[in-house]
Amino acid sequence: MDKIRTTAIVLAAGQGKRMKSSVHKQYLLIEDKPVLYYALKVFEDSFVDDIVLVVGENEEAFCRKEIVEKYDFTKIRTVVEGGRERYHSVANGLRAISRPCDYVLIHDGARPFINEEMLKRALDAVKAAKACVVGMPVKDTVKISDAAGNVASTPARSLVWQIQTPQVFEKTLITTAYETLLAQERELLAKGVNITDDAMVVEYFSQTPVKLVEGSYYNIKLTTPEDLDIALVFMKHIRGKAD
Predict the structure, then answer these.
(1) pLDDT tens profile 8-61
(2) Are 195 and 181 in contact (CB under 8 A)?
(3) From CA 222, how far away is CA 88, in angstroms rounded?
(4) Domain that holds residue 166
């Protein structure tokens, strides 16, 4: 039986305006290494075969020198520039895949606390379902508002998940879905549809259900200055569990 091949697309093209820093959030330091390093290190040491790193405008040379070469990431095959929106960056990453693969893992570089166990759960799920996302059940009650800012409904908390990355898909499925998205982008924007993650693309443009897979409450996306403080605490907890 042929080996299953996987490619990780790691997104590091965001400007992170809510972080209120002159340095893009993926390059801020947690302890002595940039945020982006930690997710890349997990993929580098995992079963993943290839990594495509998607970076900001004019940042390719910087990332090759200060990330890829400095930390000796041998699985990063391509460093490619992102696009205007997140989904444009993902599309650029998909186009940049240079070797055949069966499954694609799409991950936000600002989520440093993934681990290989999480990746293995996602791989097992995608083999069976063709599409899956990691996440966790929400801890708080969630309210749906109306246009006036009033409570319109309260979904059952047991059915509500906080979605994370990586989001993992059969390559043909996600590539076809993204090609369709880009072809219909103007019509979607006219309808006010805001594509916020990769699962939405599959939900809109295929009949394939997206399986929910357990992630981790540690697997936060660093977005605001407070998140950096939380990340330092999480780092100590995670290290303590490993010792």
Answers:
(1) 999 998 766 666 566 678 899 998 999 999 999 999 999 999 999 999 999 999
(2) yes
(3) 21
(4) 6-242
Residues 6+ apart with CB under 8 A from 205: 176, 177, 180, 181
**Contact (Cβ atoms closer than 8 angstroms) between residue 177 and residue 197:** no
Give CA separation, 224 vs 19, 74, 166, 229, in Å.
4, 31, 20, 10
Write down the pLDDT at residue 24: 79
Identify the band that residue 132 occupies on the pLDDT scale cut at 50, 70 and 90: very high
Decide if 133 contacts 212 (C-beta within 8 A).
yes
Question: The pTM is what?
Answer: 0.94
Q: In this structure, is residue 149 part of a structural domain? A: yes
Residue whose C-alpha is closest to residue 126's, from 75, 199, 216: 199
In a domain, 1, yes or no: no
What pLDDT score does 113 carry? Answer: 97
Contact criterion met (CB below 8 Å) for 216 and 241: no
